Amino acid sequence: MARAVADMTPTGSLERVVSRTFTVSSFKLESGQVLAELTLAYESYGRLAADGRNAILITHGFTSNHHAAGTYTATDLQAGWWDGLIGHGKTIDTNRYFVVSSNMLGSSYGSTAPRSVNPSTGKPYGPNFPDITLRDIVGAQKLMLDGLGIRHLVAVAGPSYGGYQSFQWAATHPTFMSGVVPVVTAPKGSGGDAAVKTLVDRFATDPNWNGGWHYERGGIFPTLLQLRIETLERYGQNEILARTIPDGGERATRIRQLADTWARQFDPNSMVTLRKAAVKFDAERDFGRVRAKVLYVLSRTDKIFPPSIAPAVMDKLARAGVGAKYFEIDTEFGHSASGPEWAKWAPTLKDFLAKLEQ
């Protein structure tokens, strides 16, 4: 059994957070293919209770990472994307809960992914990385939680692709958690094969793409940089920065800086792998299996998962006999709202968590 506890101070924030890894040999995918080794990166905050039943799993977005709360070092002060919610005395109170923020199988931040070395070739898997599903992503996390000694989750919560994972957890392991909190998301993917093709076609415009074998050609940084700038703007980053950077030109510079950091870290093959999994994702068909309570949270100005989808989702949950509550964040910050606008939905989340324990 492995347990990981972050170093913390009683100031309300988490400090000196460490990214850890969990590794097992031989992980069988839903397709039947077997990964010779599975590694998941994660952070943890708080302490696991002796009975292993006070844990909350945090899941992250499509191209995001598992740095959900705290800061890594005294010099790296980048706070986690849900830092307003997770910590001492906060809504997800680390004095009460053992919080595990998990990276995804297939992601580019320390977990087994296309950039990982294929033991049969000694080179990155690249585009030969096997196709995965949301069930595989959740299955890998379940192995990790078992390894950490977690016997039951209070909740699974996460935004965007993290919300996909929350819904999939509820369908795949219906009695392992008391509640799920899917945020700015949906219970079913969209776009189909066309969405994957569009992404690959864009990468293919870069002379270094080489059918996905870009590693020895220096990568496709310019293409990723422009893609990330467009994504941040579509997700509401300009509106978020406007709170502290009134000048439009300075905001554009800051967005480019944020995009630059990401474009130097993320493997485009991970985007393809995770997009393939996303378009096939469908937890709606398994709503009848769900036993957990659901808090479904959307953002009023989200262009990716607009509030107009909420009535149909809530109706399907109700028809399946699932206890579900809907909350809409009143915000101008679009798809990215759940972090910077944490205070607007924190009371609802706190009440939801409290009722799960009653």
Task: Report on this structure.
This protein has 358 residues and is of the alpha/beta class. The chain has two domains: 244 residues, Alpha/Beta hydrolase fold, catalytic domain (Rossmann fold), CATH 3.40.50; 80 residues, no CATH class. It is 31% helix and 18% strand. The protein has nine helices and twelve strands. The strands form three sheets. It has an eight-stranded mixed sheet, with helices on both faces. Helix 1 crosses helix 2, helix 3 runs antiparallel to helix 7 and helix 4 packs across helix 6. The protein is globular. The N terminus is likely disordered.
Look up the CATH topology of the largest domain: Rossmann fold
Radius of gyration: 19 Å
Distance between the termini: 29 Å
Q: Which geometry do the CA atoms define?
A: globular
Q: Examine the secondary-structure arrangement and name the CATH architecture of the largest domain.
A: 3-Layer(aba) Sandwich
Main sheet: strand order: 1-2-6-3-9-10-11-12
The CATH superfamily of the largest domain appears as: Alpha/Beta hydrolase fold, catalytic domain
Oligomer: single chain
Q: Approximately how much helix is present in the residues?
A: 25-40%
Residue stretches low in confidence (pLDDT < 50, at least 5 long) are 1-12
> What is the count of helical runs?
9
Under the CATH scheme, which class of the largest domain? Alpha Beta
Strand content: 15-25%
Indicate how many domains the architecture comprises: 2
**Count of distinct strands:** 12
